């Protein structure tokens, strides 16, 4: 029953009213139990009423002190959360628990209320932190289109969220599996060959392995003994485009596993966009037939390497290669076979150059190799190896073997004194035509 809109005011009215009633009833009660009426006078009745009122007031004060203190603590916690909610990027759970949680020091409805409130706060903070974590994760792939950097940021975020120690992302590039990024995996490329990896791609199901504490596995891929291995598929439009592998020294908690989907759903979109961007970027810089750099991009790389060579005073070589009588191959066998010969030629050349070297399709059957750090002696050795292997290799066509040879010209800075990369290329081209004019299938360099 409510008199006003304030609980403690209502309580005050009720308690004082109750005390007043008790004070009035008390003299009658005294007479009933046999106390002589001579003692029942106005002063006694007034004292009883005043005593009842005082007891009521004391009860109100005690209620305010005992119950009100606990309610004020609850109110203070609520206000603290409400006032600071907008300022939290990520709530510090330990600090907030000190400020927000209410000590449970009773086993009555107040204690139950405090316990329920604490559970609500913990759940709220956990969900808020999860929401902030997912938001930050989403910002990664909305602001990043580079596949390698996106994968690196994603793995480190997932490792932090799940408490893992190691992880990697494997992506599917049109049927070819590739490690996009790995952290603390000793030999990530070997992971691609594992049967469980291929099954995870085909089944589109989470796979996890838990190991007992006393069991130490020697997988050869991880520098520590994991308690849990988790393989999580990343699907875009029901097609698995990547796998996330996480290794932890402890078991994953259920709530962590339940939230991973929130991350992989967003990651799927980000990876799909990054893969498409990567393909478009590759198309813009690669020759579609030979998968070597096209001339436009390749010359930019040559320009950069020449500038670096001049700046650091280190040598840089170039080789110009041209297939001998290639027009005869097209005229005799057709352009399909000619394309196969060019593709095979580029593949073979790639096996003789380093990762830092650049193979460029300069035009038609003409190629250019940029060799940082290579002097004349080095480019002659590389050129001769390429010339010899091309001479000894053939491309099968029907029952015939199509063979070609290559003429190569080379130059190296600073042995060749020049002011620009164009002059270096021009010198290599000059030596190439010298090789052709003097019999073909040879290397000429100075």
What would you say this structure looks like, in words?
The protein is of the alpha+beta class and 446 residues long. It folds into 3 domains: 7-126, no CATH class; 146-281, GAF domain (Beta-Lactamase); 295-445, Alpha-Beta Plaits. 56% of the residues lie in helices and 18% in strands. It has 13 helices and 12 strands. The protein has helices spanning 7-32, 42-84, 93-100, 109-143, 147-162, 188-191, 195-203, 254-285, 295-312, 326-333, 335-350, 376-392, 421-437, and strands spanning 166-173, 176-183, 207-210, 228-236, 239-248, 316-323, 358-363, 366-372, 394-397, 400-403, 406-413, 443-445. The strands form 3 sheets. It has a 5-stranded antiparallel β-sheet with strand order 2-1-5-4-3. A 5-stranded mixed β-sheet has the order 7-8-6-11-12, sandwiched between helices. The radius of gyration is 41 Å and the shape is rod-shaped. The protein starts with 6 loop residues before the first helix and ends with a strand. The mean pLDDT is 81.
Give keywords:
Beta-Lactamase; 446 residues; 56% helix; 12 strands; five-stranded antiparallel sheet; single chain; rod-shaped; Alpha-Beta Plaits; 3 domains; alpha+beta; five-stranded mixed sheet
